[in-house]
Amino acid sequence: MRRAEDHPSRRALLGAGAAVLAAGLTAGCEPGPAQPDGDIPAAFTPVSPTGPHQAGITLPREAQPNLLVVVADIADGVAVGPLLAELGEAVRALTAGTDARLLGLPPGDLTVTIGVGPRLVRMAEPPSSDTALPGAVDLPQFSHEQIAPQARGGDLLMQLCAGDAVVLSIAAAALLDQAGDRARERWRQSGRRGATTPVDQGLTAPRNVFGFIDGIVGPHTTDQQRRDLWLTGPAPVAGGTIAVLRRMELDLPRFAALPVAAQEAVFGRQRDTGAPLSGGTISADPDLGAKTPDGRYLIPADAHLRRAHSSVVGVGLMLRRSYSIDEPAPGLMFISFQNDIRTFTNTLTRMENGDALLPFTTTTASASFLILPGFDRDRPLGATLFR
Fold it and tell me: What is the model's pLDDT at position 12?
């Protein structure tokens, strides 16, 4: 099946990757000299793709600086199980550096995270099932969206992250080559994370293109992740999670024109430190009841922190791996992971009813995916769901 005409062919991507390597260019910087054995930079330490969960969610703990998301459709009649198993083997080879399609490039800390869309999840459901599997429900439409049909939904997610941006397009081309005519690309998006700021106990968070620290709150402890991140049942999806992707354009000129105090009121946090406006440090729990002497909330009623706070919405925590983007317009590639889709949908529904941040955003792509449970040599990717 032919891929969309507005995307380069896999052969072109491979050729472009080789040309980039030959020119010695990366994403805006020249590669440094090869590192001697035993002296690999921490940012490029290999990440195992196998285990109870897929890599690229909580591993590595600090997300790599570069992202490429590829969303594709699966052709009718394709055996999904064998395709996913092949992709899993390709991921193992790519991250190990043994796949010739890497063109000799070291994979470094490359991670590939694979998910399947609601249509495929519904196909995998037993006919006698009374309840839908997690990930089987499509995202509803929300306000502040301008999404072309091609950029809504999809059957297959490939999230690639790495310290070396050049690795991403080459690895993605290899995975699409592995899928062949069984998959047709819908849309893709690259992104990068800014400089990170320490949050608490080894945790860091980057700044977004609004200048604010992004992703401070999340299920960071093992207990929180067990409660809010990983799926525990039914058995075919245990060890997986639910991913929501939202590409957003941000109105930078209008936001930048606000005084700093007004910007901070939009977010509910200090711009320089990330601390909540109710006081304390960046890691402090916000005091949503704190008021000024004249009775005004220190964290305004329409502040993003308040409107999206899990205790206010009544949902669990979501883990965010968001990336800033330049194309097709300055903005954010928002990615959240949670074990209940309502964590996201209920939060955004509440945000629609008065969040001061939403008027500065326009969502241009949206999708949700069941991130498959972890895999290894003896348990192929997707084997628990697609036999």
Answer: 41
